[in-house]
Design a protein that fits this description.
alpha+beta; four-stranded mixed sheet; four-stranded antiparallel sheet; 10 strands; about 50% helix; binds flavin-adenine dinucleotide
Length: about 375
Amino acid sequence: MSFALDEEHAALRDTVREFAREVIAPAAFEHYERHTFPYEIIRQMGKMGLFGLPFPEEYGGMGGDYFALCVALEELARVDSSVAITLEAAISLGAMPIHRFGTPEQKATWLPRLTSGEALAGFGLTEPGFGSDAGGTQTRAVLDGDEWVINGSKAFITNSGTDITAFVTVTARTGTRPDGSPEITAIIVPSGTPGFTVAPGYSKVGWCASDTHELHLDDVRVPAANQLGERGRGFAQFLRILDEGRIAIAALATGLAQGCVDESVRYAHDRHAFGQPIGNFQAIQFKIADMETRAHTARLAYYDAAARMLAGADFKRQAAIAKLHASEIAVTNAREATQVHGGYGFMNETPVARFWRDAKILEIGEGTSEIQRMIIARDLGV
Ligand SMILES: Cc1cc2nc3c(=O)[nH]c(=O)nc-3n(C[C@H](O)[C@H](O)[C@H](O)COP(=O)(O)OP(=O)(O)OC[C@H]3O[C@@H](n4cnc5c(N)ncnc54)[C@H](O)[C@@H]3O)c2cc1C
């Protein structure tokens, strides 16, 4: 039994780690402060093949696995969560639904552009009035001849409004089942389709260099062939995508937690108080030791969930555990790292201040901590 990375994953980790430190870190503060999307960094990540990591080579992918994506996300988030969530959403929420549920034509049309990073796609499940209970979706789609006509709104959609966003896959009610529950279908809506409006970006607490918008669909017409997967299976498809996505978010949260350790170790050497480095104080040493312990256990949890998923075993509970644990310890590590940095930790240019602002959303996005606890308890038969 070994938790060591094999040669391929270790090489990927090292490459992404170097890129994150050399290229992403120096630009992170400016993009964050200005709320600008890091197009040049995304372009370079595309060239490195990061957007194609878990996809087959026939669609321009790298032929790797989902764990490779997680390893890359951990390294990116160690430095910059905005860049990490852009990649996570692009792959896990944007391209993966097409890969998993698309027709050969849909895959041929969209995947090569997505796997190269030339284009991004969004995943529109959440609505202004429905988040955790996204099955209550109010967006409606009606077949009119050979076109779907869609009306409704979506909230908080990542990667939905960049200059390179190609489409958003939205869930919509397409009917009512005999038991009265809604029939929900996923439909691809290309950017620029008449009636599809992208609201200005939100002013967010964290993830400030990532792209998030509310979307409005007003009599939007798309070909019936834009239906993704079977009619009525849209919600079930998205639940499967979210199960996987939780492992990716756990990896991202682990990276942020580890970044807190990196910055705290550095600062413990550099900062002096009472005539000595603050790292000489046991109070600081213990904080850092606890942070490292939390990051380590979070990593083991997401490695386990990913291993189960790749082995074809049940992984729903383990993905929820990994996401719940990693996001909560990321928040704790960010708070503790800020404490280690004292007043400088409260200044935005200090990386841990950014980590602190970026950590909270990890307990909310892709299923809140309360929803993860419900999934775990239900899986235990409670
Ligand atoms: C920056 C950002 C990016 C996002 N990106 C995307 C995206 O790309 N695509 C997308 O579809 N969505 C996206 N989301 C939406 C995100 O997934 C939702 O915000 C999240 O699922 C929670 O939904 P909500 O905000 O409506 O909260 P609510 O569901 O209204 O929850 C409010 C509170 O009630 C609790 N609660 C709700 N139901 C229960 C229950 N049954 N039992 C106990 N407690 C409960 C919640 O845990 C929470 O504490 C994004 C959100 C943000 C902020």
